[in-house]
Amino acid sequence: MIKITFPDGYIKEYKKGTTLLEISKDRQEFFKSPIVEGVHNGVGTSLLKTIEEDSRVDFIDVDTEEGMRVYVRSLLFLFLAALNAKRPSVSVEVRNSLGSALYCIVKDGVVLSDFDLKDISDYMNKLIDKAVPICRKKISREEAVKICERTQMHDRIKLLDVYPDKTEFVANYLDGIYEYFYGPMLPNVSLLKKFELIRFEEGIVINYPDTGDYTRLDPWTPDPRLNSIYTETEEWSAMIGCNTVAKLNDLIKDGGVDGIIKVSEALHEKKIAGIADKIAENNKELKLVLIAGPSSSGKTSFAQRLSIQLAVNGIKPIPISMDDYYVNRTETPRKENGDFDFECIEAIDLVLFNRHISQLLEGETVKMPKYNFRTGMREYRGTTLTMEENSVLVVEGIHGLNEKLSDSIPDEHKMKIYISPLTPMSIDDFNRIQTTDMRLLRRMVRDSQFRSHDALMTLKLWSDVRAGEEKYIFPYQASADIIFNTTLIYEFAVLKKYAEPLLKGVPETEKEYTNAQRLLAISELVLPLDIDSIPHNSILREFVGGSAFKAVL
User: Fold this and answer.
1) Are 454 and 446 spatial neighbours (Cβ–Cβ below 8 Å)?
2) Contacts from 263-268 at CB under 8 Å and sequence distance 24+?
3) In angstroms, what CA-CA distances link 495 with 155, 233, 491?
């Protein structure tokens, strides 16, 4: 017998070799939704894992962010199995997420009709009704290579070299096909009842439930503009031969990464200059530029680089920080748990902000506030602003796209810019690197470099940050006049060098250890890259240090 210790301190004995799935049945009552992942000694793992010794065990249910990752991975595997059964000659590649949906392109110019999708969907539902298991099977390195060659996953073969001494790998098996996914899967497909296959552009969209309610499938709303940004970046990165981790590793090993850095940074500069040109073309009417984006998008560096390009066009940029318009601490709204809600738009003095912007646009001189984060009070330190004929106000903050922020300003006088690092980097055709993870790594490194926060603190705050983004940023991104992708194709290799020591410092006893180990497992796949070749005006410098711009923290 072995002893299993649960997070509440309860200890129970089980027979040696018992699976986490069996143990989970004794703990399901403590979770709001079905358990989909085990946590063994702090590390997230499949429920099919057998426990052979005394251990600490916890579980993750589906109506959580990590639980939905398990749902989506398993749903994708189910789709691939059905595709193999019904249309075996068709190959797909996962490109990116579009809201609560995965966008997959169909390779070789093949078009799947509505009839094809119904046939595939019906087969998926048959497997769901039968509760077909997703098995974990150990395969040799030779078998792994053969599977990769058969499916033409050449980049995946190169990633096997990351583990040179490993002779055995664990693959997933479902309805006749083997696949490898970087994360736990469901033990069977019975839970995957809510999904929808939709034709979209060059491929299909797999619609799945929002995080928080796996039983509800909302209609998917297409966002062609956001998808075009993803597609453009994906095609560009493929064109320069750096769209997968394996290709990036090859460039690092062969000494060719400096060229990728220069080209990536040049692309940013070209696009920022193009935005400045558009503003200059409409400078007589356009006087207010609002920049918004989720955490760690690079808003500060972007705003300052845009300001430089505006100056090149003969325009005088006037930077304004939205943070200086926070209401006094005593007036800040609170969350349900009583904590201050600094992320809601009501934490901004909207009346004062709109009045000041209107006055500036009318040519008046305005006494500008400065928020003192130590005292929680707005102060006036003698700073005044007056717009000139060629001036443009450049405002950066999370609420820039929310019309409440600037509802007193006519649309013809303002431009809204949404920025985010929409990464095109993938591990292979079916395993992508999520934008959310790249932003978390950016924030973790920045917090360590400039805010004296360790990784544990960043991870503890991340769920609140994400909740604020879902509520106050993402619903307004469609209103943006321009979307700018701040991703840098090489940044994963740079962030790895800084993030790995931080992640390894997260104690096993903390709940956040599980997320830290997940990120470490992904970072193991990429080779590290020094920052020597990164220009000092790079958006990435905002996070790793050495920026030519003054940091706004």
Assistant:
1) no
2) 264/488, 264/489, 264/490, 265/488, 265/534, 265/535, 265/538, 267/236, 268/305, 268/486, 268/488, 268/538, 268/539
3) 21, 20, 6
Using the Cα atoms of residue 31, residue 35, residue 49 and residue 246 in order, give the sign of their dihedral.
Answer: negative
Give the SS3 label for residue 464: helix
Please name which of 291, 292, 266 lies closest in space to residue 279, comparing C-alpha atoms.
Answer: 291
Nearest to 214 by CA among 232, 237, 195, 240: 195
Write down the residue that tokens 């395969």 correspond to: 139
Note whether 392 and 288 are within 8 A (CB). yes
pTM summary value: 0.91
Decide yes or no: CATH 3.30.1360.70 for domain 2-61: no
Encode pLDDT of 124-159 as tens digits: 999 999 999 999 988 888 888 888 887 777 788 888
Cα 8–chain centre separation: 31
Q: Looking at residue 550, what is its pLDDT?
A: 67
For the chain, the C-alpha Rg in angstroms (whole number) is: 25
Domain ranges (residues) in the chain:
2-61, 84-220, 235-544
Determine the distance from the C-alpha atom of residue 6 to the mean position of all C-alpha atoms in its chain, rounded to a whole number. Answer: 31
Sheet order of strands, 196-200 included: 92-97, 101-106, 203-207, 196-200
SS (HEC) of 408-452: CCCHHHEEEEEEECCCCCECCCCCECCHHHHHHHHHHHHHHHHCC
What local confidence, expressed as pLDDT, does residue 553 receive? 33
Rounding to the nearest 10 degrees, give the CA dihedral for residues 553, 292, 492, 490.
-110
Residue 552 has pLDDT above 60, yes or no: no
Select the more confidently predicted residue: 368 or 408: 368
Q: Report d(CA 296, CA 438) in Å as an integer.
A: 9
Q: Which residues have CB under 8 Å from 519's CB, separation 6+?
A: 437, 440, 441, 499, 503
Q: Average pLDDT over the chain, rounded to whole?
A: 92
Q: Which two tokens stand for residue 332?
A: 């800040």
In whole angstroms, give the CA distance from residue 446 to residue 299: 13
Sign of CA dihedral 459, 461, 464, 468: negative
CATH for 235-544 is 3.40.50.300
Distance CA 245, CA 476 (A): 32
d(CA 206, CA 390): 48
> Rounded to the nearest 5 degrees, what angle is found at the Cα of 389, between the Cα atoms of 384 and 390?
95
The 3-state DSSP class for residue 105 equals: strand
How far apart, in whole angstroms, are the C-alpha atoms of residue 373 and residue 376? Answer: 5
Residues ≥6 apart with Cβ < 8 Å to 55: 2, 4, 5, 40, 41
Compute, in degrees rounded to 10, the torsion defined by CA atoms 214, 220, 223, 226: 20
Report whether 68 contacts 216 (CB < 8 A).
no
Architecture of domain 84-220: 2-Layer Sandwich (3.30)
371, 373, 369: which is closest to 352 by C-alpha?
369
